Amino acid sequence: EKQRSILLDSSSRFPPPPGVKLSYGTAGFRADASILQSTVFRVGILAALRSLKTQSVIGLMITASHNKVSDNGVKIADPSGGMLTQAWEPFADALANVPNFLHLVQLVDDFVMKENIPLEGVQSAVILLGRDTRPSGESLLEAAKQGISSIVGAVAVDMGVLTTPQLHWMVRSRNKGMKAAEMDYFNQLSSSFRCLIDLIPPGSAVNVMDKLIVDGANGVGGEKLQVLKKVLHGLDIQIRNSGKEGVLNEEVGADYVQKEKAVPRGFAPADAGMSVAHFQLSSISQCFRCASLDGDADRLVYFSAIPNSNNRIRLVDGDKILSLFALFIKEQLSILNDNEGDRENNSYPATLGVVQTAYANGASTDYLKHLGLEVVFTPTGVKYLHEKAAEYDIGIYFEANGHGTILLSEGLLHWLDGRSSEPSLTSKGSEQQKAALRLLAVSKLINQAVGDALSGLLLVEAILQHMGWSIHRWNELYHDLPSRQLKVKVVDRSAVVTANAETVVVRPLGIQEAINAETAKYPRGRCFVRPSGTEDVVRVYAEASTEEAADNLANSVAQLVD
Ligand code: NG1
Ligand code: ZN
């Protein structure tokens, strides 16, 4: 039939490179951009089928995030704005790796039958396309369009250069029937930020002295932050590495800052508070606040430079952002649940949960538990964290590398809506109204689809102003345990199999016992290994009471894996 011949014809024009096998890992398909044409074309087909199946708008994003500029990648946003359902990952793998176009058509045929996907009906499919600033993005986007249009009734809408979270936000908004243009995104962020600022209790010291400097990783984030700045009031932001100054992710960006614990390129010493003149004029507590985004702006970390330390920094990572958010949310919930004198006892038993991975610094987990919060662990990968967080009325998740967000349940939002609009005469009632309004503003500011560096940054800034805190006060919430991460190149990383949220190696046999024996030698020692989902390596993480001990533990365990 017609569909079959279109698919045969178009897929014959996108032969896969021989000998390449890709897998839809924690972040879609990623590889050197030069070998991705066929993969992206095929993901276009996948997106169209997903849209037909769900009868909803689907997103397709072309990015390789924090990886080097010559890499690229492709991933799908499901109707909710979240990651592609895990149930379709095996089909994604099969489709990407099918050796020739005849097999491809057969594979698609079978899958359409199995999933009962309505083809060639009146239905239509809509796929929103986005890409980051990588030079290979444009031609890969073309390949995606060709894949999409080889499914009859599927329409590709090119949204241009976007951050990954912007595309996810658009997909989610479109499917909820809400405004979904790029300017709507910026307006929603700036108005909910404004709302939080207007609700700051009188008397909170506002840090007017502090200046915020943001590292855009020479990617899309800096560019978009420039636009956001224009509609934003009440925050002085200076942007470095916004694209023109240097190479994407090269000694810049959140991944570099977090892993190397170093000041990114493009930050003049004075920026980070290191110039002699500045240093003499102000105390360390007035040094500037710096933030760093990754290449597609879905990760955010903060830092401040250590004066005269040869580019060393004090890192304020995803765990600390999570802790700041958790503290603020908990405060608002306890205001709301303070029922003394509330005759109607309108409280809502909201569940609050915090989700981390094994990479979370042990000191952060101790701190969060000390606050009385429920802390749970999942394997690495946003899809796992997000799914877990969605089980709570308020679920806060973060990876140490700065990817995370806060999810609020529909039930809670509905209740908050009621609370915020209740007429109240007592001042007590109005405190509760304010807390409700703050949580509603948080739900609009913070991206409900996926971790978002721009919205995360605005929430951090609003909370710091609310608390009257400097970055140093924030950083003092707890002290990170020294940690070390290493990568080990192995012949076959899939030989390493883990359990218990990746904290225990079950295969090869005997390794875990050896890791335990090493770890036991160090006070506060903790160590785990796992195969990376995005790179061909096994990762080693070690934590201990001193830098030296963490380094030694990581090195000796790396040798066990090698
Ligand atoms: P892998 O390569 O599976 O460790 C990395 C990050 C993840 C996540 C993904 C997706 C670390 C240790 N791992 O995954 O947290 O962000 O990339 O980008 O940072
Ligand atoms: Zn990213």
Automatic annotation (TrEMBL):
* Stated name of the protein: Uncharacterized protein
Q: Which organism is it from?
A: Rhododendron molle (Chinese azalea)
